[in-house]
Amino acid sequence: MIAKQMRCRVCKTLRYYTKISGRKICVDCLEEWKEGVEARKLHRKHLDRAYEKLSSGFNDDLCQICGRESRKRRLAVDHDHETGMVRGLLCFKCNYGLSWFKDSPERLKAAAEYLNRPPKFKLGDEVAAYEKS
């Protein structure tokens, strides 16, 4: 394989090198990249253990927020990314939704308050009012 000049995905420098295991990573960054892969594998292993502990403690696979049963995917292990403390099992949608709020109770409360406000007007009504004037 002929070495091409490509930008490294880790350090972003432009160098000549071959693709390593399908990823564009320079030789200088390869060890750092391998360490990151191993860290992610270890994190996944810890989440799998937590899942086994939590799922054996419940009779059914229900999301702890919406109560839906997970059919296609297994429930996600929800945990605090700063402390590593496990909170429970969530379906994909609820877990993903929490991530948009950055796991912030204040943001979630603000969103709940927003949803409870009375509506301003019905869609379509503003067009009719605009056409009359």
Could you outline the blueprint of secondary structure elements for this entry?
Layout lengths: L3 E4 L6 E4 L9 H30 L19 E4 L6 E5 L1 H9 L4 H12 L8 H8 L1
Antiparallel strand pairs: 1-2, 3-4
Describe the structure concisely.
The model has no long low-confidence stretch (mean pLDDT about 80). The protein has about 130 residues and is an alpha+beta fold.
Beta-strand portion reads 5-15%
Order of helices and strands: EEHEEHHH
Please identify the structural class as seen in this structure.
Answer: alpha+beta
The Rg value, from CA coordinates, equals 24 Å
Total number of strands: 4
Low-confidence stretches: none
Which features would summarize this protein structure in a list?
133 residues, alpha+beta, two-stranded antiparallel ribbon, two-stranded antiparallel sheet, 4 strands, extended
Could you please describe the fold and organization of this structure?
It is a single chain. The relative contact order is 0.07. The chain has 133 residues and is of the alpha+beta class. The mean pLDDT is 79. The radius of gyration is 24 Å and the shape is extended. The strands form 2 sheets. Strands 1-2 form a two-stranded antiparallel sheet. Strand 1 and strand 2 form a beta hairpin. It is 44% helix and 13% strand.
